[in-house]
Amino acid sequence: MLKLSKLATAVALVVAGSAAVAGEVEVLHYWTSGGEAKSVAELKKIMQAKGHVWKDFAVAGGAGDNAATVLKSRVVSGNPPAAAQIKGPAIQEWAAEGVLANLDATAKAEKWDELLPKVVADVMKYKGNYVAAPVNVHRVNWMWANSAVLKKAGVTSTPKTWDEFFAAAEKVKKAGLIPVAHGGQNWQDFTTFESVALGVGGTKFYNDALIKLDEKALTSATMTKVLETFRKIKGYTDAAAPGRDWNLATAMVIQEKAAFQFMGDWAKGEFSAAGKVPGKDYICAAAPGTSNAYTFNVDSFAMYKLKDAGAQKAQGDLAASIMGTEFQEVFNLNKGSIPVRLNMKMDKFDDCAKTSAKDFVDTAKSGGLVPSVAHGMAIKPAAEGAIKDAVSQFWNDDKISVADGVKNIAKAAATK
Ligand code: BGC
């Protein structure tokens, strides 16, 4: 294995025709669905064009839960990958272990401080030093809808409130189709849950209950309303949802089997990969009641400390490429997200991306910009895991009363 990779490095050097050190870069990620794989292939291409050898380390599993477990075992055994897709407070936790490489040289040369929104730059830094490179901005509080299904069911406008949503869902059900495409992992349940919390309770409630984990907010009448609404949505999903991957749920909407899906805009990557056009084949709209808010989810790569000079060079080039204009455009066109780099031209992007870019800026000013809990942007992994489990238990077990659901979630939020 070792010999082979050395040989590959040597070949890459010859191909690149450069005397500069090239290296192998092993990249741990979880982008394995159709749209995701197309997106990450662009990064591989850019790195190969720079003469580096890309060692793909894809660990399937939406939202990266499986990848996080594999990463831990690799780092603990003293054999970390060159780069890994991690985000939010997890970046800080890894940095505190002293295993992440300092990216300041690249960040300074490439002027990251000027090119990134401060809210994003802060997450990428540990004690003032850059330790991760941001890729994109995903919006999580989206609702996707199939235009033909809505038409068939006689739904004439996109629901903007939860009442309108349930009226539409009822029509879809009567037309013999599945109102809500849903999958079966706790992060998928929570993706829906946090949109409901935001739509029913508003930004202040979202911040108090889900970010500050304030007990009063967590046990309030608003939380009761949130769980009632959440449970009502479940009634419009199909019986085969448990265990289903998110992209298969998106496929149900694409294939006109289901009307709606609550999912972040990586779902748009699936619509795009299937050749579907927003505004015509499908609709992207903020989840009911959330058009003035924005749950953000920033993908990023942290680099692990490695001794090999070639690998270090490759890490620097990877970080610089990720923030470069070429990658920011082509990757995000495929991924469904928007560039994280400021002042990028948006003319090649579709209307959903343009709405997202505008809302990102507007909500940052209005206070409606909040980190996604479902996607690891807000709270420490231990509390996040516990709350997700409590929410999923409630979702999966109709015998748990709303009052008990509220109690269980509040108890889980106290996990240290
Ligand atoms: C990530 C996305 C990914 C999605 C599904 C999210 O947490 O931020 O990049 O496409 O999970 O795996």
Total domain modules: 2
* CATH fold-level name of the largest domain: D-Maltodextrin-Binding Protein, domain 2
Report the CATH C-level class of the largest domain.
Answer: Alpha Beta
CATH superfamily of the largest domain: Periplasmic binding protein-like II
Radius of gyration from CA coordinates: 22 Å
What percent strand? 5-15%
**Gap from first CA to last CA:** 42 Å
Overall mean pLDDT stands at 95
Task: Give the strand order of the largest sheet, numbering strands 1, 2, ... along the chain.
Answer: 2-1-3-13-6
Please estimate the helix content.
40-55%
Question: How many strands in all?
Answer: 15
What would you say the CATH architecture of the largest domain is?
Answer: 3-Layer(aba) Sandwich
Number of helices: 19
Low-confidence stretches: 7-19
Identify the bound ligands.
beta-D-glucopyranose
Which overall shape is indicated by the principal axes computed on the Cα atoms? globular
Estimated structural class: alpha/beta
Question: What structural keywords apply?
Answer:
single chain, 416 residues, alpha/beta, D-Maltodextrin-Binding Protein, domain 2, 2 domains, five-stranded mixed sheet, 19 helices, 15 strands, binds beta-D-glucopyranose
Can you offer a commentary on this structure?
This protein has 416 residues and is an alpha/beta fold. The protein folds into 2 domains: 11-137 and 297-366, Periplasmic binding protein-like II (D-Maltodextrin-Binding Protein, domain 2); 139-295 and 375-413, Periplasmic binding protein-like II (D-Maltodextrin-Binding Protein, domain 2, 3-Layer(aba) Sandwich), CATH 3.40.190. Helices cover 53% and strands 14% of the residues. The protein is built from 19 helices and 15 strands. It has helices spanning 2-16, 34-49, 65-76, 89-96, 104-109, 112-115, 118-124, 147-153, 162-174, 186-211, 215-218, 221-234, 246-254, 266-273, 309-323, 325-335, 351-366, 381-396, 402-413; strands at 24-29, 53-58, 83-85, 125-126, 129-130, 132-134, 136-139, 142-146, 178-180, 258-262, 282-286, 294-297, 300-303, 338-339, 369-371. It has a 5-stranded mixed beta sheet. A 4-stranded mixed beta sheet has the order 14-7-12-15, sandwiched between helices. Helix 2 crosses helix 14 (266-273) and helix 2 runs antiparallel to helix 16. The protein starts with a helix and ends with a helix. The protein binds beta-D-glucopyranose. Beta-D-glucopyranose is lined by residues 30, 36, 62-64, 138, 246, 266, 297, 299, 375.
